[in-house]
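Annex B.
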Amino acid sequence: MSYSTADSLRPVTLDDVRGAQKMLSGVARVTAMEGSRHLSQMVGAPVHLKCENLQRTGSFKLRGAYVRIAGLLPEERAAGVVAASAGNHAQGVALASSLLGVRSTVFMPKGAPLPKVSATRDYGAEVRLHGQVVDETLAAAQEYAAETGAVFIHPFDHPDIIAGQGTVGLEILEQCPEARTIVVGIGGGGLAAGIAVAVKALRPDLRIVGVQAEGAAAYPPSLAAKRPVTVENPATMADGIKVGRPGDVPFGIVGELVDEVRTVSEDELSAALLLCLERAKLVVEPAGASPVAALLSEPGAFEGPVVAVLSGGNVDPVLMERVLRHGMAAQGRHLAVRLRLTDRPGALATLLGVLSVVDANVLDVSHVRTNPRLGLTEAEVELHLETKGPAHCAEVGQALREAGYTVMN
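L-threonine dehydratase catabolic TdcB: predicted structure tokens.
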């Protein structure tokens, strides 16, 4: 492998990925491959989960970062490295640099989750908080590189990064040689490109499906245009794949070797995260759950055995709470209703009695008496209920209407 930073557009080959695998021996974990009975029943074929959420630093990013930094020339290492990231890449660069004895500076947005900021510092990086969005953080990191001579470590747009991520593909073939489909999330494209290089060289018949969040899906229009296209203001809870433009290097590989790119909704991402937690007992971030979301979206579209790559597990606890609520609502297990009742003693107790009969668990009650839209004898109540699925939600609504209440949402 040639590691000069001047060689950033060279092709990525199977030999590069094999070289990266040797380099990562004893550094990155060979992560577990776990079967999922629930998903297998849905798909009608075996489904296995490649658990990169259990990798060191909590994601696959360590693989590419280590290979990239290890390949720097001595004078480049002496100048240090710099990166920009809201989380996973930051931690990968920080740990890789510490292991290799290279000074690292990581720029993170001011709003980055505190657990990710703390983890990046703990892995040995100097963290600088700059900007409100990743684009501003990226510009600051590149300006720092220009001023100091530090080497900028791109999260996905470099052959060494792609070769490192491709080691996931080699492990999949070793752990599940009978696989027919690999499903992997796509942001900038480094992981999908690396897996595709490794897998297609050895198993050209194996189908590779990329997954993007609907609100940050730059690859479908880019592939249609045959060039990277920028999606303005990408929006998704899956910050690990919230990338507005494909990388130049991975784009060419994805366009040539990845068989299909699908999109999933926020509801599907939430449901997938909830499924991973409840059924697989795995903490997975929304980006990492995107392959599972694709399986939930259209289970019959995937030839088995299927390997779904859970790319990361670094989810902020605050986001986790919101996503779990969203996922439960998407599955009909969390219902919010708003209604009016007569403002008299015992009215709320009567309402709760109706809900008790249909076995709806009340999580929260908001009781409003002073509002211009309410009559003098009216009160408005908003209830958050734990329910048992869509059929139970319908039963709750029907019971409220039969008891004389007007449900407003």
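The domain at 61-152 is CATH 3.40.50.1100 (Rossmann fold). Residues 158 and 404 are 64 Å apart (CA to CA). Further annotation is deferred to the next reporting cycle.
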